[in-house]
């Protein structure tokens, strides 16, 4: 090998070593930040809680892409995705519309214990980010408000409307008197009642959403889901 060739090989080797060092540094930094966020967001309290899955940031990364975005507003963004064969909606607060609340872990535990056919189920959360992301079951038919005022192709007859009213009342009664801690919704309206494929109503946007996003948030609804 000539001296020129040796010089090129040496330069390439130096660049590769430098790139490896930078990669290791960034990886360690990200892992350290993830651990710090996990602790800050109550991971030590939530790790042993029943009925709640703590997702790692990497598990949700593929879903948090622009083509999966189904809702956006002052509260943040909502993404639709698939986790282990189940459709989910991930709520990701953004910008200045977030604030820290030390009761967050306890509220997660309370809502994870809410199991009623007329209430949107919280499946888990991701704590390895600055502001926790929440993972809910995905409700396919959007909000009652959308169907009543926007989507004229889905007409609801009187019997269906009465059924939605009755089942929504069952969900609220459960929250008020049959949970470990009384849960007051505080903002019941058609936009916060979602409908599944059988038009079964599911109450949404209560509890934890009040801890993560500012009160009186303006939510955005897209076909398929809203919070």
From TrEMBL:
Gene3D superfamilies: Phosphorylase Kinase, domain 1, Transferase(Phosphotransferase) domain 1
A GO molecular function held by the record: ATP binding
Catalysed transformations (reactions): L-seryl-[protein] + ATP = O-phospho-L-seryl-[protein] + ADP + H(+); L-threonyl-[protein] + ATP = O-phospho-L-threonyl-[protein] + ADP + H(+)
EC number: 2.7.11.1
Entry's Gene Ontology cellular component terms: plasma membrane
GO BP term, example: cell surface receptor signaling pathway
Keywords in alphabetical order: ATP-binding, Kinase, Nucleotide-binding, Serine/threonine-protein kinase, Transferase
Protein kinase domain span: 64-227
Domain of life: Eukaryota
PANTHER family, sorted: PROTEIN KINASE DOMAIN-CONTAINING PROTEIN, WALL-ASSOCIATED RECEPTOR KINASE-LIKE 21
Family: Belongs to the protein kinase superfamily.
Identification of the protein by name: non-specific serine/threonine protein kinase
Provenance organism: Aegilops tauschii (Tausch's goatgrass)
């Amino acid at each position: 090998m000539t001296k020129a060739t040796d010089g090129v090989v040496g330069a390439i080797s130096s660049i590769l070593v430098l790139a490896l060092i930078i990669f290791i540094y960034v990886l360690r930094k990200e892992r350290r930040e993830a651990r710090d966020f996990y602790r800050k967001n109550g991971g030590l309290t939530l790790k042993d809680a029943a009925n709640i899955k703590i997702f790692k940031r990497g598990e949700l990364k593929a879903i948090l892409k622009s083509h999966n975005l189904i809702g956006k507003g002052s509260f943040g963004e909502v993404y639709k995705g698939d986790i282990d064969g189940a459709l989910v909606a991930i709520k990701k607060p953004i910008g200045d519309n977030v604030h820290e609340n030390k009761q967050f872990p306890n509220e997660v535990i309370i809502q994870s214990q809410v199991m009623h056919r007329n209430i949107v189920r919280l499946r888990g959360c991701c704590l390895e980010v600055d502001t926790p992301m929440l993972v809910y079951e995905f409700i396919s038919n959007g909000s009652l408000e959308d169907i009543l005022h926007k989507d004229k192709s889905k007409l609801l007859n009187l019997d269906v409307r009465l059924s939605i009213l009755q089942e929504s009342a069952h969900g609220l009664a459960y929250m008020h008197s049959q949970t470990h801690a009384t849960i007051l919704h505080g903002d019941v309206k058609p936009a916060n009642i979602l409908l599944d494929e059988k038009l079964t109503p599911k109450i949404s946007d209560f509890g934890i959403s009040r801890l993560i996003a500012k009160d009186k948030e303006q939510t955005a609804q897209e076909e398929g889901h809203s919070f």
